[in-house]
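Quick one: structure for this chain?
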Amino acid sequence: MRSRNGNLPFLLTSLALSCTIAFGADNYYIGYRLSAKNTQAIHENLTVSKAMRPCLPENTASVIIFKCAPQESLESVLKREQTAFLEFAASDELRVKSNDFFASAQIQTLNSLTLPTKCYAVEFNDESVTITATK
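Got it. Here's what it folds into:
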């Protein structure tokens, strides 16, 4: 059922999210790359670095929340919850590259999966960390 005041709950949620991004959260650049040769992972790299300036909030920002221990770093949370974070981040942009090499009756395949480095607003609470996609 629609309320009389229209989209007020949506507007309040958006305003609260914008304030969290602008005032309460730190900004981090996060990127990921996985290389595989003949379906076996040969290199995996998750990069996390703190942004020097605030990132611009998106109008339709997506959010994910993870549980964390006090004083736990963002990198350790992301490594522990890597699959869930990659699924969250891949909804925006994911790059896949595949190269096949044929040489004397052998086929070699080299694949790479890349999530381009992007800025995220990260807010640590007592028992959780909130990660919000930004521009």
